[in-house]
Amino acid sequence: MTALLTLFGVLSGACVLLIGVLVRRTGRRARTESHEGLRIEREALIQAQIDRVSYNARAVHNSLPTATDAFQRKKST
């Protein structure tokens, strides 16, 4: 019985610790105060969208390298 209570105590402590970490992280990144931060977030979002299109399974395995969107964007600019 003591081992079972110890197990539940350790699991509860780990859950509380993880919840605390998540709440602290969310509080820090919840709002971007400056214009510079908003610009950085927008650029990161755009880059993530480009990467999702360029490196998905279909683009990587079933097409020529010159057919990806990344190549077309670099070629046109």
Could you estimate the helical fraction of the residues in percent?
over 70%
- Estimated structural class: mainly alpha
Q: What is the rounded distance between the termini?
A: 69 Å
Order of helices and strands: HHHH
Approximate strand percentage: under 5%
Give the number of domains: 2
DSSP helix count?
A: 4
**How many beta strands in the DSSP annotation?**
0
The 3D shape can be described as flat
| Mean of pLDDT | 78
Main beta-sheet annotation: none
Parts with pLDDT < 50 across at least 5 consecutive residues: none
How big is the Rg? 22 Å
Explain the overall architecture.
The chain has 77 residues and is an all-alpha fold. The chain has 2 domains: 1-30; 35-77. 79% of the residues lie in helices and 0% in strands. It contains 4 helices and no strands. The longest helix is centred in the N-terminal third of the chain and has 28 residues, at 2-29. The chain is flat.
